[in-house]
Amino acid sequence: MIKFTAIGKVKSKFKKPAGPEEMKNNESIIEIEAQYKDGLYKIEDYEYLQIVYYLHQTEGYDLISEWRVGPRRGVFSSRSPRRPNPIGVTTVKLLKKEDNKLFVYGLDAVDGTPVLDIKVHSELMDETSSLATDL
């Protein structure tokens, strides 16, 4: 059995999902639950964060589906929110921290979305050009 506990919720002007371009070009607030507030210590030292969240308004999924643009794709070769495990991951810009609130830019999550985890964006761990090989 897998069990997750939300550490906070998203505050957004979007009540329902909209196009990703529209949603990502807005500011949101992530409000962290009081018992996890100390986990935000020194988070403002980072410009970018990775937000892991539960896509609570998503229902069902298709393993292969029509993509918004282009050919049919498998769910694991897309960014579709309709997934076997409806979990979203987005890198956002941290604008500021006030108490237990993170003001961020670029989060494509609707109002009330449960936040499962926050990780700092690390140039060392998240940079992809170092993965190039001559295999």
Automatic annotation (TrEMBL):
Residues 4-130 form the TsaA-like domain. SUPFAM superfamilies: YaeB-like (SSF118196). Pfam families: TrmO_N. The keyword Membrane does not apply. The keyword S-adenosyl-L-methionine applies. InterPro entries: TrmO-like_N, UPF0066_cons_site, YaeB-like, YaeB-like_sf, YaeB_N_sf. Belongs to the tRNA methyltransferase O family. This is tRNA-Thr(GGU) m(6)t(6)A37 methyltransferase TsaA. It comes from Halanaerobium saccharolyticum. The lineage of its organism: Bacteria, Bacillati, Bacillota, Clostridia, Halanaerobiales.
